[in-house]
């Protein structure tokens, strides 16, 4: 599908006094093959594949009042119950930028309430869950106003994914259950414009657990946008993009076969490659901390000694995602307890693979 297929064909200037409320819950996601480098309008330099999380989500509700006599978008934005001017500014700009996809926007007053299930700066991508939850709400409003234009579920989710991407690239993967891929993959039916669910994977992955160890709760010292930009001049960029292209193919087979050791090897290599790219960029960023390395080493030696598939992943920060499988829950309990000493306030967030976004009341 092309950009133009998501453009609104509906004339909102006929609407007189339409109002309602919609609400969606959308999860965060953790990339296995990482998206790092973008161009144009939030287009990825390489394809990526992520794990949809379950417990780390945003719940967003939007009350809408649409009227043809209104001339400009009016917005109220509440984050965790409090009016938030800085988010309001960012969201206003975002909404004004996507008016061609939702013709009701300039005729609307929107009251947005957004809450996260996880703490701020916990190493969980809050932009992924929050931008996808908002995009789903916008698609739902369009449905309400336009008699189910997006009624077809496949198109609805695809448009939501497309609109999420315009807010934050990785957010486009959050709407789908289990695993999602984003970006053009060889000759496959895939796109840089939106994500798609990964259709085939072994049942063992439905039992994937992600325990997130908060090593530092400080703000990221490099924003994703800046990080992506740095790839433009990174001396290893070309090799990296080729590697990611090959890895999405490999990962799809690994997921089908249920090959846990190959899965873990790629997961860890991708996490370290992301940080290696940041270290090698100009300016250089070193976002892992001594505790991150200690935790990684503990996980690796536990795996070697016990022969249990437990792995680590990282996002663009120092916190460690400990990836394991339900069948080993009892066996890794001791490891997790030992690692608690490296977590701020002993805090570990327990998460698992999830079912994707859902409509809420
Ligand atoms: C390291 O999606 O946060 O988490 O498109 O600028 O909003 P923007 O970037 P963002 O980048 C995510 C980078 C990553 C890897 C990934 O999720 O694939």
Describe the fold and architecture.
With 361 residues, this protein is an alpha+beta fold. The chain folds into two domains: 3-199, 2-Layer Sandwich (Ribosomal Protein S5, domain 2), CATH 3.30.230; 204-352, 2-Layer Sandwich (Alpha-Beta Plaits), CATH 3.30.70.890. The chain is 34% helix and 24% strand. It contains eight helices and 14 strands. Strands 1, 4, 5, 6, 7, 8, 9 and 14 form an eight-stranded mixed β-sheet that branches. It has a four-stranded antiparallel β-sheet with strand order 11-12-10-13. It has a two-stranded antiparallel sheet with strand order 2-3. The longest helix has 21 residues, at 237-257. The mean pLDDT is 94. The structure holds ligand DP6. Ligand DP6 binds next to α4.
């Amino acid at each position: 599908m092309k950009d133009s297929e998501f453009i609104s064909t509906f004339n909102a200037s006929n609407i007189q006094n339409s109002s309602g409320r919609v609400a969606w819950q959308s999860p965060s996601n953790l990339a296995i093959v990482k998206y790092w480098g973008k161009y144009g309008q939030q287009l990825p330099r390489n394809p990526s594949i992520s794990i949809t999380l379950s417990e780390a989500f945003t719940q967003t509700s939007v009350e809408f009042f649409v009227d043809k006599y209104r001339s400009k978008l009016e917005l109220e934005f509440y984050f965790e119950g409090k009016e938030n001017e800085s988010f309001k500014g960012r969201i206003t700009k975002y909404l004004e930028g996507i008016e061609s996809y939702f013709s009701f926007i300039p005729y609307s007053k929107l009251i947005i309430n957004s809450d996260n299930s996880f703490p701020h700066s916990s190493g969980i991508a809050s932009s992924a869950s929050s931008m996808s939850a908002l995009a789903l709400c916008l698609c739902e409003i369009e449905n309400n106003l336009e008699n189910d234009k997006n009624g077809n579920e496949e198109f609805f989710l695809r448009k939501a994914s497309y609109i999420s991407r315009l807010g934050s690239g990785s957010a486009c993967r959050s709407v789908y259950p289990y695993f999602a891929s984003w970006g053009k993959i060889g000759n496959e039916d895939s796109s840089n414009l939106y994500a798609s669910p990964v259709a085939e994977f072994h049942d063992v992955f439905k039992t994937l657990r992600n325990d997130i160890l908060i090593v530092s709760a400080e703000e990221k010292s490099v924003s994703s946008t800046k990080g992506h930009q740095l790839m433009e001049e990174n001396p290893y960029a070309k090799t990296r993009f080729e590697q990611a292209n090959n890895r999405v193919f490999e990962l799809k087979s690994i997921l089908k076969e249920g090959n846990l050791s190959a899965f873990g090897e790629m997961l860890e290599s991708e996490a370290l490659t992301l940080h290696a790219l940041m270290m090698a960029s100009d300016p250089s960023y070193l976002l892992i901390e001594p505790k991150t390395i200690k935790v990684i080493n503990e996980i690796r030696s536990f795996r070697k000694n016990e022969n249990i598939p437990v792995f680590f992943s990282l996002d663009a920060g120092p916190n460690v995602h400990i990836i394991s499988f339900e069948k080993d829950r009892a066996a890794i309990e001791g490891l997790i307890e030992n690692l608690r000493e490296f977590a701020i306030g002993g805090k570990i967030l327990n998460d698992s693979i999830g079912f994707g976004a859902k409509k809420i009341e």
